[in-house]
Amino acid sequence: RPRSSFEALPSFTPAGLPLVTPQRWRIVAHRPSNVYPTYLGGGVERAADIGDVVFLFVPGLFTRLHWRSPTVRWSSDQAIPQPLWKLGQLNHVAIAVPDLEKATALYRDVLQARVSKVLPLPDHGVYTVFVELGNTKLELLHPLGEKSPIAGFLQKNKAGGIHHICLEVDDITSAIEELKRKKIRVLSDEPQIGAHGKPVVFLHPKDCDGVLVELEQA
């Protein structure tokens, strides 16, 4: 004789309609040891805990318990902490070019893209031209001054190439603090004003899988 007892749940739906089959039961007690299933007639498929709701079918001489899918319960006490900053969209991909006029003509006259005027950025040692692509931009970079970092890049890459990618963040100060805690090196002590007139910083490519990443305040 099984040592489990059962409490039948209400046999009517909230609309007042009778529940015909299968009958639902709640386990209200079971034997102390739950190592082995509690057998009922032909046996149950597994043991149940107090409070579990089960379906009871009667196919013949044997009665078998069938478990419904477990219910996932969420608790506000276990809320996931939110980060202080969030990563936004791709702002642009920067391309170093040895001939800025030629590169601008390619995107403007051949590829029919909208391009900006040449913008000198002495603090960064570059001339820039932005190519509008609708969902993002390309930034064409050309050296400005002898100490330009783009000049050094072009010495190693004569034909030019992708220099960095720029990602937007909603709080660049918080982003810098957290990235430093996670051992990601930032290439300047403080954000500088970039080509869009917003604060920017660069992350060390050796900490970003070989990619120079620029973060820009959204």
UniProtKB/TrEMBL annotation:
Name listed for the protein in its UniProt record: Methylmalonyl-CoA epimerase, mitochondrial
Lineage: Eukaryota, Metazoa, Chordata, Craniata, Vertebrata
An MF annotation (GO) of this entry: methylmalonyl-CoA epimerase activity
PANTHER family hit by this protein: METHYLMALONYL-COA EPIMERASE (PTHR43048), METHYLMALONYL-COA EPIMERASE, MITOCHONDRIAL (PTHR43048:SF3)
Domain of life: Eukaryota
Domain VOC: 89-218
Reaction equation(s) it catalyzes: (R)-methylmalonyl-CoA = (S)-methylmalonyl-CoA
Function: Methylmalonyl-CoA epimerase involved in propionyl-CoA metabolism.
